Amino acid sequence: MTFTISTAEDGSERLAIEGELDAVSVSDLRTDLEKLLARQPARIEVDLSRLRMVDSSGVGALVSLYKRARAQGGSVVLTGLRDQPLAIFRLLRLDRVMVGAEIVAPAPAGSTSTSKH
Amino acid sequence: MTGTLDHRDVTLRAVSAACKLVTRRPQGPTWNEFRMQVVSAVGEAFNNIVLHGYEGRGDGEIEIEIRATLDRITIAMRDYGSSFDPTTVPPPDFDSLPESGWGLFIIKAFMDISYTPGRPNVLTLSKTLPSEPADEAPKAEGTPR
């Protein structure tokens, strides 16, 4: 798992996670998530378009980020969920329960609909 | 193998490879979903044994037995840690948005499960490959010359 965190001029943060976010790799992320939350951003975009696999530990880290950012008055937008991670989020009903988090999945292959960004 | 998270990856690679043995045609959406669900469930089960069954220990053993037949895979996971009956655990409270406790729900959602506590504890996960929808079946070859 690799990840990057970048801060935009408007103060919003962008977290991009690539590879596998699981019980093995999640500890690599936690320290940087603490630093990110300490900046109290108004908006966090979590780009998961290159996330290949997630397990319950990885889901827990993202839920924690979401809850803590919201508690600080910020918003969280999850983008690019697909394949196994999207299936896990749907199974756990996180696409419905994480109210306020806009989960934007890519359009299916062959779809003619316009995707939202 | 040793019951540490470092050995999870090799376990999941073996399970993923075994999923190819349950069909003569390991491809297409139905098989991809089958493999995704099996690998996800076994990964969660491995986590549970290491993080809960062998909590605080680094010397536990996990024995993995994979049986693949046409249309079905069965994975038996044996450990010598604390016993934990997954069939008695209620589902998570989705509305409270918990940060943990999802693993068992994922396992049960994706695979059939049985558990026998003891020395060793035996967790058996199995799953049947669903029939391939007609539109996923191999296309007929062109007209022979």
Report on this model:
The complex is a heterodimer of chains A (117) and B (145). Chain A is α/β, with parallel strands linked by helices. Chain A is 36% helix and 30% strand. Chain A has helices at residues 26-38, 56-71, 83-91, 94-97; strands at 2-7, 13-21, 43-54, 75-79, 102-104. Chain A has a 5-stranded mixed sheet with strand order 1-2-3-4-5. In chain A, helix 2 (56-71) links the parallel strand 3 and strand 4. In chain A, helix 1 packs parallel to helix 2. Chain A is globular. Mean pLDDT of chain A is 86; it is low at 110-117. Chain B has a 4-stranded antiparallel sheet, with helices on one face. Chain B has helices at 8-18, 28-53, 103-110; strands at 62-69, 72-79, 112-116, 121-128. The mean pLDDT of chain B is 90. The radius of gyration of chain B is 18 Å and the shape is globular. By secondary structure, chain B is α+β, with helices and mostly antiparallel strands. Chain B contains 3 helices and 4 strands, in the order ααββαββ.
Q: Can you count the beta strands of chain B?
A: 4
Instruction: Estimate percent helicity of chain B.
Output: 25-40%
Terminal Cα span of chain B: 55 Å
Whole-Å distance between the termini of chain A?
Answer: 25 Å
Topology:
The complex is a heterodimer of chains A (117) and B (145).
Chain A: E1 2-7, E2 13-21, H1 26-38, E3 43-54, H2 56-71, E4 75-79, H3 83-91, H4 94-97, E5 102-104
Helix pairs in contact in A: 1-2
Chain B: H1 8-18, H2 28-53, E1 62-69, E2 72-79, H3 103-110, E3 112-116, E4 121-128
Antiparallel strand pairs in B: 1-2, 2-4, 3-4
Helix pairs in contact in B: 1-2, 2-3
Compact overview of the structure:
The complex is a heterodimer of chains A (117) and B (145). By secondary structure, chain A is of the alpha/beta class.
